[in-house]
Amino acid sequence: MIKSTIYDIFKGILGTNYNKEYYQIINLINNKKLKEFQEESLKKLLLHAYQNVPYYTRIFNEIGIIKNSNNCDLSKFNQIPILTKDKIKKNFHELTSKDYLKRKWYYYHSGGTTGEPFTFILDINYQKWDKATTKYYKKNMVGFNKNNPKNIYLWGSEKEIFTKVENPKEIIQNWLNNTKMLNSFNLTEVNMEKYIKIINSFKPVYILGYPNSLNDLSRYIKEKKYQIYSPKFVISSAEVLREDMRKTITEVFKTKVLDFYGSRETASIAGECKNGSMHLFSFNNLIEILDKNNQLVKNNQEGRVIVTNLHNYSMPFIRYELGDIALFGDTNCECGNPLPILKKITGRVLEHFVREDGSIVPAEFFMFLFIEYNNKGIIKKYQVIQETYKKIKILIVLDGNLSESEKLDFEDKIRIAMGTDIEIVWEFVNDISKTQSGKYLYTQSKVLK
């Protein structure tokens, strides 16, 4: 109770209290006003973008979607060109709202579905709705009755590998959130032994993590025949949760495994309920599923996931292509929740690397390494390939000069994660081929077990 009160005060000081947004979500669902809210929010976003975002001012004039200063023609929404990472990079300033300084904003980085790093702008309104959405999912869909129940994140932290120093602000926030962070970027046998002890002593209500990391930890526990504390739920996020992974994690932790779908660019998209349905958070994002001709798919057809976030006004993501493939559900869920359903999600597969001892280095580790150099305009494209346990090849398409000292910095960091005796081979190429599905594989392991 005391910690919860301190937490509310802390959020108030930072201006990040999201209770208003949370209760708005409850009200929308209870009063069946989701469709009206989504449409009204979309109109407000489009009008704001027209008046403040040069990129959209030009495009909206071309298609005639804006009727006047207070209204727009949503029947022309599907004429808005699809937004991609490449377009954001090329039009960063034109996509930034002219009034972004009037609100709390911050730069953010993402590796995206395929690992292509880029930078964008988010704001406090986006953050509040994301946190309110997450609270709604955990409290109203999953069933956590208390605010901030004890939880463990098996998540990626590249800073911790290199600096060994935690951010004081993050330490305070984790304490107030009853959260313990376990670094999945360094999932060695020694660390897994330590993480098992932490889980057993901390006794979390839920554990959230990358499915590959959760699966590898579960396999290690099973192999060693260890006893492990069983939380109320395990929540998987950021990668595709394969059924074999779900089976292993469920067997080891003796609890239900739920999948959560989101992205750094557009926040929380969908969450799996206790009945196994993936419900779309339609109050946070507008989701379209399109075919190769950018037309809405027919019933029971898979297509490309296109997302419009309804709450980020500093850099609106309107009809943004995530790089994922999905399928709409066509039935209501027995759980009674009125939110629409995604029947199937594919994509988001980030190939992890395997050390010789069988421990895992998630693909996200390498993505974070390249973000800084990509933002500086030095590296245009990259692909990291694990040829063997002892050899890694890096394909690079340069857009600037990469110095020898910068190459050595890359190598040092890779060896910290993969082993000091790793051979690293650089190949500077003109282009990197896509897969048959049209995606770049920015990480690839040839020794993946």
Describe the structure.
- This protein is of the alpha/beta class and 449 residues long.
- The protein folds into two domains: 1-347, 3-Layer(aba) Sandwich (Rossmann fold); 353-445, ANL, C-terminal domain (GMP Synthetase, Chain A, domain 3), CATH 3.30.300.
- It has helices at 2-14, 19-30, 34-52, 54-63, 85-90, 92-95, 124-142, 158-163, 168-176, 189-202, 211-224, 243-253, 364-375, 404-418; strands at residues 66-68, 71-72, 105-110, 118-123, 151-155, 179-183, 206-209, 233-237, 256-263, 267-272, 278-280, 285-290, 303-309, 320-328, 341-346, 353-354, 360-361, 379-388, 391-398, 423-428, 443-445.
- Strands 6-5-7-8-9-10-11-15-14-13-12 form an eleven-stranded mixed beta sheet. A four-stranded mixed beta sheet has the order 20-19-18-21. A two-stranded antiparallel sheet has the order 1-2.
- A hairpin with a 3-residue loop joins β9 (256-263) and β10 (267-272).
